[in-house]
Amino acid sequence: MISTTFDRHVVLIVDDMPDNLAMLSDALDESGHIVLVATDGLAALERLDHITPDLILLDAMMPGIDGFETCRRIKQVKRVAHVPVVFMTGLSETEHVVRGFEVGGIDYVTKPIRPQEVVARIGAHIRTARMMTQTRGMLEHAAHAVIVLGGNGLPMWQTTKASQWLEKYYGPAAPASHKLPGPLQVWLNEQLVRQRQGESLDHVPPLIVRQQQDELHITLSGPGQGHGVSLVLEEKIAGSAHRGEELMVLPATLEGARLTPRESDVLLWLGKGKTNRDIAEILGMSPRTVNKHLEHIFVKLGVETRSAAAVLASSIAAASGTSSGSQLLQ
After folding, report:
1. Radius of gyration (C-alpha) of the chain in whole angstroms
2. DSSP SS3 for 97
3. Contact 17, 60 (CB under 8 A)
4. To 10 degrees, what angle do helices 182-196 and 160-170 make?
5. What confidence tens digit (pLDDT) does each residue in 45-60 have?
6. HSE on the CB side for 298, CA within 13 Å?
7. Of 7, 74, 108, 281, which has the fewest Cβ atoms less than 10 A away?
8. What is d(CA 184, CA 218) in angstroms, rounded to the nearest whole number?
9. Among 259, 260, 279, 280, which residue's Cα sits nearest to residue 269?
10. Residue 233 per-residue DSSP state
11. By the 8 A CB rule, do 89 and 108 touch?
12. How many helices (H) and strands (E) does the chain have?
C-alpha cells in the first residue's frame, strides 16, 4: 500500500474527460503534488483499496456510478473516510451543491476548470486535513470527547470516545452511518439556526442525556481561529463528584504543561477564536508579546499550529464552563 507520509501530497483525480485529466495533472504536478487518476467511480474505489491519497478531486457527472454515489461509497470505507473530497461540476443548482455536501464532500469547483484556483483550494484543504489529523491524535487521549462538524452541520470526524459514548447513551448507530443520533441532530440544528440569526453559541446550555444514574453532557464549542463548530462530550459518572461540584479532569496533553497565568489567559482567548490583536487589546499587551506567549504555549503543549492549540483550549473551556484561563489550565 502506498504511504503518503512523505512531503509531497497525493491527489487522486477522478474524471472521465481526458482533457480535464491532462490539464489538472499538469497543474498539480507543477505545484509539487503526486497525481493519480481514475476515469470512473469504480476505478477510483479500486485504487483506494491500495492507496490513501491526501485529497480526492471528483467529477460529479460520470458514466456508471456518478460522483455523488462514488463519494457516498468512499465515506463508508473507514480507512479512507477521512480523506477530503472536492467535487468538480458544471452543475451550480442549489440541490446539486447540497447533495455534494450531504454525501461527504467538503468543497466544489465549477467547470470550466481554472487550474490555479483548483491548486490553491487543494493546498488549503490538505493543510486543514493534516491539522485535523494531528489534532485528532491529541484529542483521542483527552478526558473529553470531541465531534468536529462540517459546514453542513454533519460530523466530519469524531474521537473514539465520542463514538463509544454516543452508542452508550443513544444506542448503536446504523452500519456505516456518519450521522448524529436523531435527537442530538435536532438539538444541534436548533442551535445552528440561532447562530445564523446572530446569536452567540458561547452561552448555550449543554444538552444532558441520562443513562440510569450517569449523564452525558454535550456542549457546543463555537467557531474559532482555524476551526469550526464542534461538540464536546463529557461523561458524569454517578458518585464521581460531590454535589454542587464538577469533576474536572485535564487532558493528558495539558498535564504538566506548567503554563504561566499569562500564557493561560492567552490560550483561553485563542480558544475563543480571537486574533493576536484582539488578545492584545483584551489583555493590555502588544501583539508581539502575544505572539511570544503563543510560541511558548506551542512548545509546552507539543503542538505546531495555533489551530491545534485553539481546539484544545476551546474544547476544555466549553466542557468545563470555566471563565478564567488561569483557573482552566493551571
Report:
1. 21
2. helix
3. no
4. 110
5. 999 998 889 999 999 9
6. 12
7. 7
8. 9
9. 279
10. E
11. yes
12. 12, 10
Name the residue with cell 487532558: 251
Give, for 235, the enclosing helix (H) or strand (E). strand 230-236
Angstrom CA distances, 129 to 71, 161, 235, 251, 262, stand at 17, 20, 28, 22, 31
Q: What does the DSSP assignment read for 110-179?
A: ESSP-HHHHHHHHHHHHHHHHHHHHHHHHHTTSSSEEEEE-TTSSEEEE-HHHHHHHHHHH-PPPTT--S
189-223 pLDDT, tens digit per residue, is 888 888 777 777 667 788 999 888 889 999 887 65
pLDDT tens profile 249-271: 334 445 456 778 788 888 888 87
Cβ atoms 218, 229 nearer than 8 A: no
Amino acid at 290: V
What is the length of the chain?
A: 330
Phi, psi of 33 (to 5 degrees): -90, 155
Q: Which amino acid is at 93?
A: E
C-alpha–C-alpha distance, residues 58 and 89, integer Å: 9
CB 118 within 8 A of CB 57: yes
